Amino acid sequence: xxxxxxNWDDVAAWWRAEVATDPVYREDVAPMxxxxxxxxxxxxxxxxxxxxxxxxxxxxxxxxxxGCDRSEQLLTDARAVCPVALCSLPSLAWLxxxxxxxxxxxxxxxxxxxxxxxFAEARRVVASGGALVVVINHPIFTAPGSGPFMDPDLEVFWxxxxxxxxxxxxxxxxxxxxxxxxxxxxxxxxxxxxxxWHLDELLEAPLGRAAIEREPSYAGQESIPRFLGARWVR
Length: 234
Fold this sequence. Notes:
Rossmann fold; 7-stranded mixed β-sheet; 3-stranded mixed β-sheet; 12 strands; globular
């Protein structure tokens, strides 16, 4: 297994290439983000904005936006779109209470080991009546030991692995690896509720056609959830 990441700048070049070439972001995730954000998100803070692809999408639709991330190199890209801040999530101590109308997080929550603080800090910085929108890899995908298997009739099913237990797996990130943290849907929803969030909408989606055409080994997984999206209101 490759070396774990010590500094997120170590994988900035890999991340830029990943976003540029993977159809998942454009064809599978973008529709989820659009639906969950809705037509009037107000001022938006993206938590873990990376190179700013979602900030640009929102800004192009007229939303006032700013972002934060722990990679200085990726923030250099995002800074061309809007104001940004260097920070280490889940702490948002640098931001005042009720500073934004909506907080957005895409493929970040399952990289954090402290999900309770994430929900609490997001609630603190979002104004009353505002929203938190999160898109992550589906928990049945992140569960240690989970994965596809084929029955004797060549039908693809999904092995749930250690779904009911919290855990983490190391996944490739270029020449390095990152820890992918797993929690069940029940764990995530309960932590959000404990922080004072009220669930407004929950989405589940599979890999789309373009992703499966790009990687034929995914064939047969069209009905298996791969992404989870949620919108909470404060």
